């Protein structure tokens, strides 16, 4: 099927998104059937064992269980493919809308079938009128300008000659020609991309259907024991479809943590882990007595599962580790295909039991970035791939230092897995998360085009010049953010001389007057002496509220973040 201009304009991406949601629901239902079958097989083995019939029944049940275990990830792949196509069509429709906006009010016109031409007034007293309004449409094609024809050219013919040209009257101006050629080229490019997406999705869905006929069977393969994200990407590219299917179904825990794999693969693996952990937590919470912390963790992960399934953009679960305080990484939008990718690193007190607000912040940046640059795609990631401090241990840099390798590997993985040209990468650190970003960048451990510190207690450096790209280091701290009231290490040393009241008074004065740039973990990134590019944040209702106000809908800081992430701020 050939995708036409009229077809693309009339397409409804919501239909593909709705179909994707249906495949995702079916995936969950099959997973539930698998869990029920596993419980039935366990009871059967207890009640009926010994003899040929019992063994045959057990083997048949186990074979069915294996088939059911392999199916849900394959159905999730159908969901991902349809969402991806829907996102592409939305973007291409936005690009068409921008092209049509560019010609509005000009002499350039676009016909209902996508042909581009220039309207000129009829020559005074010469020749018949070509239109009832005293104008004629002059189709100006690339062949008449540079001698080259183009794929499916929207410009119908060259100027002059026998092929529909206009041999009389004033020639169109250079600006009209340039605009017409530019719009024609954009329409051609958009249609080519729509056609390519349609063909790719069709091919991969057919491959899934073929795999379904073979019960999604896979071939066992060994995971790599070590290597960089680039090594992981090359290893994955060399696997067969059968080997990949086996890994997703049988090694989701190991596969889901590998930086350098495609986001869609990690999402399928980690959603499988999430389903397993929810099953375990339900049993743990229902036990007598319940497992300590099980109910709180169950509530948090149930909320995560719901958030992954609902939203204006598709979410990707890129990491899930339920051990200890836990790790979770969630992306809004596909980081492998997006033009811009922002990684948000949260701060103190964030854990697998308390992360919902941080997910909301990443989603807010993505939504505003998409509105700021509608002709591009932007993905944002909430990266809780480290163990932030819970309280007083925020005075130590240990957690930030421990995060360096994992944050660096994640950013390298974004580069290794990205399709086409590298995305514009941003790192946003809030509160203690800005320290984690700062020490990683200071030590050369991350790939990032933009570094952003919000409500920072210091980034572990004395100035932006110590970071990789000082002209691309950004900072914002609300005037009444509580982080400004904290004593610096130097002020704390004076405690022995002047007492706590003296230190508190000095720190409070610094916060109000912004005279002393020393904070606990270094120089205030929002101070003049640090040298970052500072943007404004609205004060909060109180110092605690101010510390989290940067992502609020009406805060100018959110718009600044969107412009930084999308590269709309200039050099």
Automatic annotation (TrEMBL):
Residues 120-143 are annotated as: Disordered. Residues 321-483 form the DUF1023 domain. Pfam families: Abhydrolase_8. This is DUF1023 domain-containing protein. It comes from Catellatospora methionotrophica.
């Amino acid at each position: 099927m050939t995708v036409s201009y009229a077809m693309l304009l009339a397409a409804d991406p919501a239909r593909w998104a709705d179909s994707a949601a249906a495949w995702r629901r079916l995936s969950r239902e099959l997973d539930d059937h698998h869990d029920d079958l596993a419980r039935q097989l366990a009871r059967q083995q207890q009640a009926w064992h010994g003899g040929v019939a019992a063994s045959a029944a057990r083997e048949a049940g186990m074979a069915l269980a294996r088939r059911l275990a392999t199916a849900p990830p394959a159905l999730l792949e159908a969901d991902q493919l349809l969402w991806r196509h829907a996102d592409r069509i939305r973007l291409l429709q936005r690009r068409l809308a921008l092209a049509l906006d560019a010609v509005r009010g000009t002499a350039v016109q676009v016909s209902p079938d996508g042909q581009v031409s220039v309207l000129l007034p009829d020559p005074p007293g010469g020749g018949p009128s070509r239109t009832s309004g005293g104008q004629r449409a002059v189709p100006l094609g690339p062949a008449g300008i540079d001698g080259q024809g183009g794929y499916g050219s929207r410009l119908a013919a060259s100027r002059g000659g026998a092929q529909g040209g206009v041999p009389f009257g004033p020639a169109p101006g250079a600006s009209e020609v340039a605009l017409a050629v530019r719009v024609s080229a954009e329409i051609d490019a958009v249609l080519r991309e729509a056609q390519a997406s349609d063909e790719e999705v069709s091919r991969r869905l057919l491959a899934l259907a073929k795999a379904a006929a073979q019960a999604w069977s896979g071939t066992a393969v060994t995971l790599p024991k070590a290597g960089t994200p680039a090594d992981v990407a090359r290893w994955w590219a060399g696997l067969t479809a059968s080997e990949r299917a086996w890994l997703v179904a049988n090694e989701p825990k190991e596969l889901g943590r590998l930086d350098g794999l495609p986001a869609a693969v990690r999402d399928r693996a980690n959603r499988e882990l999430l389903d397993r952990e929810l099953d375990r937590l339900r049993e743990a919470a229902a036990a007598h007595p319940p497992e300590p912390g099980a109910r709180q963790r169950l509530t948090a992960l149930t909320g995560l599962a719901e958030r992954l399934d609902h939203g204006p953009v598709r979410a990707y679960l890129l990491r899930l580790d339920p051990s200890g305080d836990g790790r979770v990484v969630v992306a809004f939008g596909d980081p492998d295909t997006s033009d811009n990718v922002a990684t948000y690193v949260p701060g103190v007190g964030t854990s697998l039991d308390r992360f919902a607000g941080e997910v909301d912040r990443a989603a807010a940046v993505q939504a505003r970035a998409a509105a700021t640059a509608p002709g591009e795609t932007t993905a944002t990631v909430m990266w809780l791939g480290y163990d932030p401090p819970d309280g007083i241990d925020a005075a130590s840099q240990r957690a930030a230092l421990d995060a360096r390798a994992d944050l660096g590997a994640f950013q390298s993985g974004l580069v290794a897995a990205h399709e086409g040209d590298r995305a514009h990468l941003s790192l946003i650190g809030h509160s203690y998360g800005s320290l984690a970003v700062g020490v990683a960048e200071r030590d050369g451990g991350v790939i990032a085009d933009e570094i952003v510190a919000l409500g920072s207690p210091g980034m572990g450096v004395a100035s932006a010049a110590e970071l990789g790209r000082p002209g691309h280091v950004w900072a914002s701290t609300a005037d009444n953010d509580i982080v400004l009231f904290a004593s610096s290490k130097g002020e704390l040393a004076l405690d022995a001389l002047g007492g706590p009241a003296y230190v508190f008074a000095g720190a409070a004065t610094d916060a109000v007057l912004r005279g002393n740039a020393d904070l606990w973990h270094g120089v205030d990134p929002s101070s003049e002496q640090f040298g970052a590019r500072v943007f404004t944040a609205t004060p909060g209702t109180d110092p605690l509220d101010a510390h989290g106000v940067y992502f609020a809908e009406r805060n100018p800081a959110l718009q600044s973040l969107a412009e930084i992430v999308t590269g709309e701020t200039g050099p």
